[in-house]
Amino acid sequence: MKVYIIGINHDFQVPNGKRPEEEIRAFKSLLQDMCGQYQIQAIAEEMSLEALSNKGQQESTCKQVADNLGLPQRYCDPNSDTRKDLGMIIDENDIYLQKLFSGLDDEQVSRKIRDEHKRREQYWLKELKDLGVFPVLFICGANHALSFADLVSQGGLSGEVLYENWSPHEFL
């Protein structure tokens, strides 16, 4: 049960967003190529419908590619209600606010961010296992690629990072 991971800047996941159209096309091309090369059976991503809606979008670039290829797709990041229900996953910005108001030092902030990243990554792993379709291509923020690959491997799956921090400049 293989999980192939591509770390990116999240802007590539948002069509008609901050990235120029040629960069979005390069990202879509990458996803299509990786799906063919690794015989991908599903695409999953660190994204939620809520996050897309907040950016004025109804679906991600990854969803568009999955639909085009006839593959299942899953948004694996919990929305704000799910985060509250689970009593978990403080946003990084909230941790920086805690630093300002409660006097956390830099090491405490770094540790809290690492802990929250791990909790979110565990949620993604649960979502992948619930999806149950492998091999799967997983798209996440570049700052998660290596740690998520380690967690996937510890969780009984096989994780491989294809790109730690993909850039369209390699393809344009």
Produce a short descriptive summary.
This protein is an alpha/beta fold. The chain has seven helices and five strands, in the order βαβααβαααβαβ. Strands 3-2-4-1-5 form a five-stranded parallel sheet, with helices on both faces.
Structural descriptors:
5 strands, 15% strand, 172 residues, 7 helices
Coarse shape: globular
Major sheet: 5 strands, parallel
**Could you give the order of the helices and strands?**
EHEHHEHHHEHE
Task: Indicate the mean pLDDT.
Answer: 90
Low-confidence stretches: none
Overall number of domains = 1
Instruction: Give the number of helices.
Output: 7
Report on the structure:
This protein has one domain (2-170). The protein is built from seven helices and five strands. The chain has helices spanning 21-37, 49-54, 61-69, 80-85, 92-102, 106-131, 145-154; strands spanning 2-8, 42-45, 73-75, 136-141, 158-163. A five-stranded parallel beta sheet has the order 3-2-4-1-5, sandwiched between helices. The mean pLDDT is 90.
Task: Draw up the topology in text.
Blueprint: E1 2-8, H1 21-37, E2 42-45, H2 49-54, H3 61-69, E3 73-75, H4 80-85, H5 92-102, H6 106-131, E4 136-141, H7 145-154, E5 158-163
Parallel strand pairs: 1-4, 1-5, 2-3, 2-4
